[in-house]
Amino acid sequence: MKLLKHIKAVLLGLSISANVFAADIQLQNLRCEMLVNPQGIDVVQPRLSWQLTGTGRNIMQTAYEVIVASSPAKLAAGQGNLWTSGKVASNESVMIAYKGKALKSGTACYWKVKVYTNNGDSQWSTPAKWSIGLLSPADWKGKWIGYEKGSPWDSVSKFSRLSARYYRKEFSSAAKVKRATAYISGPGHFELYINGKKVGNEVLAQMPTDYTKSVQYSTYDVTADVKPGKNAIGAVLGNGRYFTMRPKYKPKKIKEFGFPKMLVQLDLEYADGHHQLVVSDQTWKMTADGPIRSNNEYDGEEYDANKELTGWSKVGYNAARWFKPELVDAPGGKLVAQMSEPIKVMQSIQPKKLSQLKSGTWIMDMGQNMTGWIKIKVKGKRGDKVTMRFAETLQKDGSLYVANLRDAKVTDVYTLKGAAEETWHPVFVYHGFRYVEITGYPGKPKESDFTGEMVYDALATIGEFETSNEVINNVYRNTWWGVAGNYKGMPVDCPQRNERMPWLGDRATGSLGESFIFDNQKLYTKWLDDIEESQTAEGAIPDVAPAYWNYYSDNMTWPATYVLIADMLYKQFGDARPAEKHYASMKKWLTYMKGKYMKDYIVTKDKYGDWCVPPESPELIHAKDSSRTTNGQLIATAYYYRMLFQMKRFAQMFGKQDDAKEFSALQGKIADAFNAKFYNAQTQQYDNGTVTANLLPLYFDITPVANRKAVFENIVRRVTTVDNNHIATGVIGTQWLMRGLTEYGRPDLAYRIATNKDYPSWGYMAERGATTIWELWNGDTANPSMNSGNHVMLLGDLIVWYYQNLAGIKAGINQPGFKQVIMKPTLPDGLKFVKSSYKTPYGLVKSEWRKGSNFDWNISIPANATALISIPAKSAGGVTEGGKKAAEAEGLKFVKMDKGYAVYEAGSGNYSFKSDL
Question: How far apart are CA 788 and CA 786, in angstroms?
Answer without folding.
Answer: 6
